[in-house]
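testing teh design pipeline on a random one, pls ignore if ur not involved
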C-alpha cells in the first residue's frame, strides 16, 4: 500500500491546523516585504553549490515567494531551468525544460506547466515552495504529497540538492512530521541561508 494511504490521523490534523495559520501568515509576509524574493536570491551561496546542469523551480501561486530571482542566478551560472508537471494526482512530478517562449498549460494539479513538446529533464537542484519550515529541514506543503513523492524518487536515482524557498517568518519550532516526509537540504530566505545538518538519530 502506498505511504500516502498510511498517514497518521493526529499528525494529519496538526498539519491541517498549521496550514490554516501559515497561509494567513504567508499572505501577510508577502504584503509586508515584496522584495523578499530578490533578497533571498542574493543569499543563495552559489560558490558552495556543486555544478548544476538542471535546476528546477516552481510556478508560484498566491502568496508563494517567487523562485525566479533564484532561478535567474542559476541560469546565469549555466543551469538549464525546468518546471514541475503533475501527470497524475498520485504520482511523482516530472520536470520539463522552461524557456521564455515555452508554451504552458494546466497540468493534473491545474498549475501552469510546460507543454509536452518541452524536453523532460532530471534536476540536480530542486527549489521547493512551502508553508512552514523548521531548522531540521522539514517543510509543510499544501498537503498533496507531490514533493515528498518526487524528492523520494529523485533521491533514489542519484545525488539531489533540495532547497526550500521561504519568507523568514514562515519558520516554526517544529513541523509535524511522519516517516514519509522528505526533509530539504537547506532553506533560503530573505534573511539568510541555512544548511541542514544531518543527524544520526
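output:
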Amino acid at each position: 500500500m502506498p505511504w500516502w494511504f498510511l498517514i497518521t490521523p493526529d499528525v494529519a490534523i496538526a498539519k491541517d491546523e498549521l496550514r490554516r495559520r501559515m497561509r494567513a501568515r504567508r499572505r501577510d509576509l508577502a504584503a509586508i516585504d515584496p522584495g523578499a524574493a530578490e533578497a533571498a536570491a542574493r543569499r543563495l551561496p552559489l560558490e558552495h553549490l556543486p555544478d548544476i546542469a538542471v535546476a528546477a523551480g516552481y510556478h508560484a501561486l498566491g502568496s508563494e515567494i517567487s523562485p525566479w530571482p533564484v532561478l535567474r542566478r542559476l541560469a546565469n551560472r549555466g543551469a538549464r531551468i525546468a518546471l514541475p508537471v503533475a501527470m497524475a494526482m498520485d504520482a511523482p512530478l516530472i520536470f520539463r525544460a522552461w524557456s521564455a517562449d515555452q508554451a504552458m498549460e494546466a497540468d493534473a494539479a491545474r498549475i501552469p506547466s510546460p507543454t509536452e513538446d518541452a524536453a523532460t529533464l532530471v534536476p540536480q537542484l530542486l527549489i521547493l515552495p512551502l508553508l512552514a519550515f523548521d531548522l531540521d529541514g522539514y517543510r509543510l506543503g499544501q498537503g498533496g504529497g507531490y514533493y515528498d513523492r518526487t524528492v523520494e524518487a529523485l533521491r533514489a536515482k542519484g545525488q539531489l540538492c533540495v532547497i526550500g524557498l521561504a519568507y523568514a517568518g514562515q519558520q516554526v519550532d517544529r513541523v509535524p512530521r511522519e516517516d514519509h516526509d522528505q526533509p530539504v537540504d537547506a532553506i533560503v530566505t530573505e534573511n539568510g541561508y541555512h544548511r541542514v545538518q544531518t543527524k544520526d538519530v
